[in-house]
Amino acid sequence: VFLVRLDWALVVRHVRWIAMYTTSALLLPLCAGVLAALAACLLGRAARGVSVALAFFAGPALCYLIDPMVIALQPWAMRRFVPLIFPLLFLLALYGWQTGLRRLGGRRAGLAGAVFAGLAIMTAGTFLGSSAGLASHGAGAGTGAQVRALAKAIPPDALIVIPDSNASLHTQIALEYMGGRDVLLLPLAGGREGRVENAMVRFLARRIDEGRRVCLLLARPTDLAGPLVRHFQLDFLFEQALSFESVGFVAHDAFPEPPATAQLQNRVWEVRPQENGQVPRSIRVGDVRDDVGILVKGFHGPEIEVRPGQPPTPFRWTGPVATMAFPPVAWVALTIDTSRPATARAATIEVDVDGVPVDAGPTDLAGWHRLHLPMPRPEGAAAKRIVTLRVNAFSMKALGLSDDARELGVRIVSAEIGP
After folding, report:
1. How far apart are CA 186 and CA 207, in angstroms?
2. Closest by alpha carbon to 231, among 206, 267, 268, 266?
3. Which of 8, 49, 141, 407 is deepest in the core (most CB within 10 A)?
4. pTM, whole model, 2 decimals?
5. Is 334:414 a contact under the CB 8 Å cutoff?
6. Most trustworthy range by pLDDT among 68-82, 105-119, 188-202, 353-367
7. What integer pLDDT is reported at residue 396 of this predicted model?
8. Distances (CA, A) of 271 to 166, 274, 288
9. Angle ∠(364,407,315) on CA atoms, nearest 5
């Protein structure tokens, strides 16, 4: 039943990926060599250790051929296949060739040895030739020193928190092994943060109460601190660029081009308990250093608008639902731009504070507006007040204006925080 339901088209595709390293012409002799080694084991004629090598080879190879993907864009098995399975594939094939050529050659040991040497040289040359573009590029040169400098710049002995949406960057591994730092991946976005929010908050609060500093590291401008904003104060410390070599995504039947230089702008905040008297009175939304401390979720990456005769204005688009967290103050005023393409419906905004609807002025808006939000302070209110905006979003792609498929609500430019 398993073999019938298996998607053999995918298996063939994954075999082709292996052939990118070895070529199709060489892959067939390699497989024949492995089968010869397997036959020798079954007949009890294999040298000691060959059956163990086959056991270590068979399981991972089978998993790889069925499905090597973690997600649609991340093949977990190929990066493990190259350093682990390829050596076993070559060793088993070489052993199978040697065993088979000895039996076929009989007394002509010299000829069998020459053929075996030729196959070995051809295998090494083909594999190294296919990988030379990547291996000779020097990918990662200098990155280690930058990682160590980043680790050194973060306060010593601090626990470093990274959102698990950045797990694919593997920054946590570099900081742990090259910088000697303690790093924790936490689900700060993607919909899973709500299920573990209380546990995360209690854990970090205990670390802070014990006297340990906690720092948040965000590598992309679209990253947000998520639930941390609800419970803590985030103080910006510094930003530091880190350049590295990146291999771009290619079609499944293409070998990747040599790596290209990419850059991350790492920004670090210290996570502290909320303190009275430490509240900024004006926050520029769109300036990552300012706005990460109030944005919870539902915001797109920062952008800058340039209008003739005016200085550049940073802003962020909201999505259909955008959440912010503010300290317990009397009021908050949001400067927003509700202008939209002529073919989109006018913006309709609903606002609530801690789940209670508040009157923020007119609901059908067009152009620049200042939403003044009263923030009542009921007895026993939480340390942070949660403001939620619900907007009838539109899509530039749905309107046929561009390929931008994001759901866009309104543009928020700044937040003024009252006493």
Report:
1. 15
2. 206
3. 407
4. 0.72
5. yes
6. 105-119
7. 95
8. 19, 9, 16
9. 75
